[in-house]
Design goal:
Layout (H helix, E strand, L loop, with lengths): L1 E6 L1 H18 L2 E6 L5 E3 L2 E3 L1 H10 L17 H8 L11 H15 L4 H12 L4 E4 L6 E8 L2 E6 H7 L5 E8 L10 H6 L3 E4 L4 H9 L4 H6 L5 E4 L2 E2 L2 E2 L4 H8 L5 H8 L10 E5 L11 E5 L6 H14 L1
Parallel strand pairs: 1-2, 1-9, 2-5, 9-10, 10-13, 13-14
Antiparallel strand pairs: 3-4, 6-7, 6-8, 11-12
Helix pairs in contact: 1-2, 1-12, 2-5, 4-5
This protein binds ligand FO1.
Length: 315
Amino acid sequence: MRIVVLAGGIGGARFLLGVRAYAREVGAEVTAVVNVGDDLWLHGLKICPDLDSVMYTLGGGADPERGWGRVGESWTVKTELAAYGAEPTWFGLGDKDIATHLVRSTMLNAGYPLSAVTEALSTRWEPGVRLLPATDDRLETHAVVEDDQGQRAIHFQEWWVRYRADILTHRFVFVGAETAKPAPGVLDAIGTADLVLIAPSNPVVSVAPVLAVPGLREAVADAPAPVVGVSPIIGGAPVRGMADRCLAVLGVECSAAGVGRLYGGRPAGGLLDGWLVAEEDAGTVVPEVTVRAVPLRMTDEAATAAMVRAAVELT
Ligand code: FO1
């Protein structure tokens, strides 16, 4: 059995722990197609927060409290940069994490594509899942915001980390998306999968940039395999993160039904055959989609693997 997961953010990384556990039980292969919209170049380094969250989480090196970066991290370089007055001061890189960015940036500057670099980094972390960036091309999520400095576009990380999404926001733009190509292996993985899962990741800034890569949304919509999504919203609130603020920018209701309808049912030109919602959201209706309510809190690997089993049983 081959499972493909569209994922981003911490929700995606934790969900993949459960997918991997389920896959080990049944002998399945897992490919994660990961968001790159959060990526940025900083201090000459390429930072890929979502790929790293997945790699560190599955490799046992993530900080479980912070949710991003490395466990047992130190911050000497951050302190030194601050002493130089180097901007931005609102975004911190840990020392251990910087080693990852150094290796990645050196390889990228030498001409290797991000997918090859990710594979190389993964040999250390052995995530047990094939990690593919959605694209090797530069694709960045920017937010069009407005304040007393006027209207401007800022990088997603500035919006998320510096402003904590607390600034008038008109829309998100996936810069570079029009000319981006799916990374090698992405379309093939989706086209030959037995099951495509949409992780309980932020639909607006984690999953939408993946789907914005030309050909990727179409590949999911036309996939021979069933497509099942998992709601990141429980009882009208995001489990973690700021999906509520992101959905508000799109004018989409922050509910399991709102996100399910945003993805849409396949017969109606959307993406989903099935939609898993939390027990609190039983009764959710998404036109032309099979909806099932199950426990959706990713408290541990076993609970998360049970969600994946439910997704398989839904198909
Ligand atoms: N999140 C923060 O809230 N503050 C930071 O200074 C910060 C630095 C950072 C560095 C590397 C990295 O991979 C992630 C980092 N994050 C930080 C997390 C990141 O902003 C995200 O939560 C996402 O991109 C959303 O998934």
